Request: fold
Amino acid sequence: MTQEQQQRVEWRTTSGETVTVGEVAATPQSQALTVRWPRGGWVWNRPVAVLVARGEEEKRIPIVDVTRVAQLGLYGLSLAFGILGLLMWVAGRDKDDERDI
Amino acid sequence: MKETFDQLTATSVETQKQAIQLIEKLLTVAQPGAVFSEPMEVEGRTIITASEVNLGLGVGFGFGGGTTPSDWKQEKEEKKGKKGSRRHHAKSADPHERVELEGGADAEEEAADEPSASGEDAGMGGGGGGGGGASGRPIAVISVGEDGVEVEPVVDATKIALAFFTALGSMAFMLMKMRKAAER
Reply:
């Protein structure tokens, strides 16, 4: 990817402000996709995880977009059915052609 | 004329600068501050909401001008010659032709074609437009307490239900087609 393309399309993970409660420190992380063109642009920014630090212990809790996962799963299922149906239709048509011969 | 042209160009440049500044502001949406809310204290716990943000915009400008072509004079003379010969022969009772004989319509046409002494033979125009859209959707609630951090997802039941019925519809349609194909 050229430097110009890198400037136009950027996929970046950034950390927000750390919130400290007692010994627990939580730092939220977000991921942003930025696409820019000469007279405009598009930005998609979503939260990805929370980094939790407690003393010396550190862990990463992912933020799952349940709605998106469910939507994609359902659409994927219907797409799989569509492909299966198409394959069966093609197979059935080939059989019909063989019978005609 | 030149003053008007300069004025229009200056306005156009200024508007374009403002549009570019607006596009630069896009970058602020790519910051974590746009996704995570300010921390709030609720019953001894600190709550942060996390949302997905989507923003897009685009603008466009066009500006142009033109002058009479250099061979205008030659064309004009040719036209004049033709019109002149037509005028001598036109002796009709038709009111339109009479106006032409008096030089009304033709004179207007000539005035529109002919460059004036002040140099107003140039035309110019410009325009611009833009559009954009933004959306935001809560994804999770982050709860920070002394006992640890909890991430509670926000479920949009309407969106899931819509996706479910869409998938169900397409699957039912496909099953019907598959059954029909199997029967043949």
User: Anything to note?
Assistant: Residues 42 and 143 of chain B are 9 Å apart (CA to CA). The radius of gyration of chain B is 35 Å. The beta strands of chain B are 40-42, 45-66, 123-145, 148-153.
